[in-house]
Amino acid sequence: MRLFAASVVALLQAGSGPQTRADLFKRLEPSVVVLEATSAAGDRLAHGTGFVVRADGLVVTNHHVIDGFASMRAVFADGRRHAVTGVVFSEPKSDLAVVQLDARGLTPLVLGRSEGLAEGASIFVLGNPLGLDFSFAEGVVAAVRESGLPGDSRLELKDADRQPLLQLDVNSDFGGSGSPVVDAEGRVVGVLASKLGRALFAVPVDTLSALLATHPLDEPPRPLKQVPWVNLAISVVVLVVTAVWVSGWRRGGRQPRARRRFTGYEE
Questions:
Q1: Which of 85, 138, 167, 172 is deepest in the core (most CB within 10 A)?
Q2: Is 95 known to be catalytic?
Q3: pTM, entire model
Q4: Catalytic-residue membership of 153
């Protein structure tokens, strides 16, 4: 009888595994977005991943996903597209950022705890590696790097030798940056950030939670990369002065002194 009961439990566990993973994917999918950097014509220039942390449009991603771009949009799994209206905060040191979408009524993910997370713990990642949008992967925590990595590790994160990191054994690649790393309950335990060889690294969610607690989240977000108007104005003035000088030189039939030196060789 005991053997029969154990066999029934084993069969139930074997049958519930894939269904549990499918349910987890369905729970995560509405909250994960493809973050696309776009051209003036609306074409995709680059992409990364983000996930909703507040229903009024706050999305977490990596600093390097948004850095240097002037226009971005978020694409949800159901095809909805919302403009990124600004940056709430961005931290290059931890490679984390929060952006504001022009959207309301979103489904946020629950933030868990990374403290106490142990090597061998099961984790799941939903992201957009290599443009393969909304790819779901399962893995484990390979190591908890409380002191980060050595400075000669060539990790993409700045100050990586001083930042706590989670080393993961899970499949992802370029475009997966900013993906939520969750536990079996669907709680975020990290934010996928960088790849070094075959190893992937995530910023622990406790780092994100601390930033969310210390930054004002309800102030108007600052725009994405802006055109530096002072530099632009100087460039315009230089171009105008140059154009006027060249125009007057051509009308007078004169050439600059340095140019005359070479006229003989050209002839």
A1: 172
A2: yes
A3: 0.76
A4: no
